[in-house]
Amino acid sequence: MAGITHSAFRRLLADFGGYGALFTEMLSAKMILQEDLSRSPWLKRRPQEGRVIYQLLVVDTDRLPAILERLAALAPDGLDLNGACPAPTIKQQRGGADLFEDADRLRDIVRVLRRHFAGPLTVKIRLGRQTPRWRARLGERLRLLADEGVDALTIHPRFAEDKLKRSARHGLYAELAAEARLPIIANGDIMGPDYVREHAASLASAAGLMIGRLAAMQPWIFAQWRQPTMVVQPDAVWRRLYDYIVEDFAAPQALARVKIFTAYFARNFLFGHTLFKTVQVAPDLAAARTRADAFFATAPARCRSPSLEGI
Fold this sequence. Notes:
Layout: H1 7-16, E1 22-23, E2 27-28, E3 52-57, H2 64-71, E4 78-83, H3 88-92, H4 97-101, H5 103-116, E5 121-125, H6 134-147, E6 152-155, H7 173-180, E7 184-187, H8 193-198, H9 200-203, E8 208-210, H10 213-217, H11 221-226, H12 234-248, H13 251-265, H14 272-280, H15 285-296
Parallel strand pairs: 1-3, 2-3, 3-4, 4-5, 5-6, 6-7, 7-8
Helix pairs in contact: 1-12, 2-5, 12-13, 12-15, 13-14, 14-15
């Protein structure tokens, strides 16, 4: 959720509530040493957010104790090591899915994290690369993480090369939970309460659910899950996040975040591509706001079943 689950977006989610915990976007661990903890839109947290778990991109143990000592000032409610991201830029840095493949480096990093952080420690993984040994290798990683004191795993049951293609293999959770000896948090393709009911058998072994892109499209999803009759005015939601982003980010960074969010949010409308296109080419924040306001002024029809396909 890089570019999305920053402080402004978490503030918006907190306005609605309904979740158990919020995760930051994947944060470069070494960046934490340079950031102003009280002002950084990636790091700062507000009391109303509740539990906040900081997800880290870690590629080696260099300066990791110092990073964790600095991060402790924010009192994270948990740390999450990303061993799942398949993005080429992250793999080139030897993070995400690349870290999953390197057992020795993964073990070293988890040991330092566990030694210097006493709170909940989770690791997010995929299924690894799709090779003849994928299942055996996955089992080795599950045992490694359990042996090194990880508290829970978030498993996105796709192969690294799948990215977001093909359906998530939720049917694997029962055997993975048994083998891992750890609580499993289900992730990938979870599109709301109807989906969970329809796939109850596959998800029964999961200790929790992680919602990602759906929350970017419908930030009220957690609250509406608990209150199905809840009424939302999408235009007001877009404007509120716009204001929050402008408050937290410098102008160029703010415009980029508004555009990223709008790509997801536009999926709520039958002709949302109009909103998406006009905001994407906006030269500045004022133009983005004016163009969005013009779209909302048409009282656009909403989709009954919005889709995230293609994002």
